[in-house]
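Researcher: We're reviewing a set of sequences before deciding which ones to prioritize for further study. For each one, I'd like a predicted 3D structure that I can look through quickly. This is PiggyBac transposable element-derived protein 4. If possible, include the structure in token form so it fits the rest of the review sheet.
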Amino acid sequence: MCSYSIAQPAIKVALSDDPSPLEVYQLFTTDELINSWEIETNRYARAIINSKDQQLLSNRSRFKLWKPVILREMWNFIAICIHMGLDKKTTLHDYWTRHPVLYSSFAPKVMVRERFLPIFNISAHQRQVLEVYIDEAMIPFKGRSRFKVYMKDKTTKWRFKLYELCESSSGYIWSVEMYCADKRMSNKLVDITMRLLQSLLDQCYRL
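Model: Here's the predicted structure for PiggyBac transposable element-derived protein 4, in token form for your review sheet.
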């Protein structure tokens, strides 16, 4: 006869009997984390403002109108960002519009548009955009292999053809795909590009 034991959860957390979505979310996104975000947002905003020529800024410039954020505002900012992911509109301004077709009451109740947009812009500036490129590489090869390709204009006619995803400033090779003329795999440029970029999608990389 086989005996069975009930598995115990690997992670134990303290939750109320009927936890709210916010209570569960705060297990992963703590006040300590948001406080760090608040500090870095204010620090980055000061650095940008100090680098600007104040005389060239208009009175309506978001840099002149900037006020340091506080912890409660950061939580409200995150709440609106989550809401935007659930209720997608064409532009940011649409979340505060009074147009009867587009109107949504959530964002205006949580934070006014004039406060949300400066925080959004500063947060967007903080995300460093890294550039990558895709290049072809050729490796001469005289041996026997079904992966080699024939190039009549080269001294060495037979070569391996590679597609390389590289970091722009250093040329560091992130990933490589060999051309193999396999009918089961698309060799269209857009498909090759998507395969090479798969691990970098949604991580602020620009091709």
